[in-house]
Amino acid sequence: LLAPTEMSSPSLKTGAYILIGVGALTMLMGFLGCLGAVNEIRCLLGLYFACLMVILITQVAAGLVIYFQKESLKEELSSIVGSLIENYDPLNDDKRNLQDTWDYVQRQVACCGWTGAKDWEKNEILINKSMTEYPCSCANSSKDLEVDSGFCNLDDPVNSTATYADWPVHEQGCMDGVEKWLKDNLGVILGVCTGVAVIELLGMILSISLCKNIHSEDYTKVPKS
């Protein structure tokens, strides 16, 4: 479970609640859509249309919030990650999931720290070890690729103390790495979002068409006086 102190950001909590709500609404929407189409129930098809519209509006609103509040979100993420790095402890099982997630990010993005490896100089354990150890997930050498998390020892420390500059780690910070990944994959992300929006619009159009067909059939079945 995520530690409450690390996940105290109001914006991140709000975003998580929105995603949970959209996921639940999507499941309900799919069930109602299938039930309404199979049994030709107009009210369920209308509800299906309304759910699709709410989801589409929510997605657009979320995109606008992220775009206009990106600097604020970046500051909050910086604070959260900074606290995580400062208190990172491989022996602390209470924060294991969150720490493993951050190790995964550093390995996949090939980065170290939020702004750079210097962020890890604030870690209490590394300070006590005189910086002669470094986070294994930051390593840029093939020797430590099999180590997923925790701290690794410097092979030949020059002195009894060291700095982040002596570590065999990636120079790039994860903030820059994530931004670079988003820019490189912006076309794919926009394409997926556009595809999802088009599918939702088609679903709305089809639900309206079915409602009209059902209404026409009901009208033709009414006996004329």
Structure commentary:
- By secondary structure, this protein is mainly alpha-helical.
- The protein has 2 domains: 11-87; 95-187, Orthogonal Bundle (Cd81 Antigen, Extracellular Domain, Chain: A), CATH 1.10.1450.
- The protein contains 7 helices and 2 strands.
- The protein has helices spanning 10-39, 42-68, 70-86, 96-109, 124-128, 174-184, 186-221; strands at residues 133-135, 151-153.
- Strands 1-2 form a two-stranded antiparallel ribbon.
**What is the alpha-carbon Rg in Å?**
26 Å
Helix content: 55-70%
Q: Structural class from helices and strands?
A: mainly alpha
How far apart lie the N and C ends?
68 Å
Biggest beta sheet attributes: 2 strands, antiparallel
CATH topology of the largest domain: Cd81 Antigen, Extracellular Domain, Chain: A
In one word, what is the shape?
A: elongated
Portion in strands: under 5%
Question: How many strands appear in the DSSP assignment?
Answer: 2
Identify the CATH class of the largest domain.
Mainly Alpha
Count of discrete structural domains? 2
Main-sheet strand order equals 1-2
CATH architecture annotation of the largest domain: Orthogonal Bundle
Order of helices and strands: HHHHHEEHH
- Figure out the total of helices: 7
Ranges with pLDDT <50 over ≥5 residues?
1-8
| Integer average pLDDT | 80
Protein name: Tetraspanin
Main location: membrane
InterPro entries: Tetraspanin/Peripherin (IPR018499), Tetraspanin_animals (IPR000301), Tetraspanin_CS (IPR018503), Tetraspanin_EC2_sf (IPR008952)
Family: Belongs to the tetraspanin (TM4SF) family.
